[in-house]
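Quick one: examine the sequence and fold tokens given here and explain what the tokens say about the fold. Here goes:
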Amino acid sequence: MDDFRSDTAAPLERDEILQLVTFRLGDEEFGVDIHALQEIIRMMTITRVPKAPSFVEGVVNLRGQVIPIIDLRKRIGMPSAVYDKTTRIIVVQLDRKTVGFVVDAVGEVRRIPARVVEPPPPIVAGIESEYIEGVGKLEDRLLILLDLHRLLSDDERAQL
């Protein structure tokens, strides 16, 4: 199997089991390594930040810590959506910075064998492969595995 994980991750072993948190953006299902997640929170009031990149919604105060909130749809080139009761913020650590990503809905924790994950084609669901770790072929659907570290450039992470 090809090594399709990011430079920061170890190559996958064929018999390895991946633990993923799944979420939806539109009609597509995505997954991220559960170890990347700090927590999942309900949508809350976001304070806008002047001159922030278009995909940065603003900041929130999460138990005394101010964290930037990124609209994941905007970041990966999908059209914006209206936030509703299923909208969530997945809070992650990226290079020692806490960041929140807005997603349409959070699914479940799934365990899938690494052998069902293939390297990404150049474009999946209209999303450039630079953000994608791989595509999991499940029984009845595809699961797009996002590489959270590639979602933001070094410069963008520094600005946050």
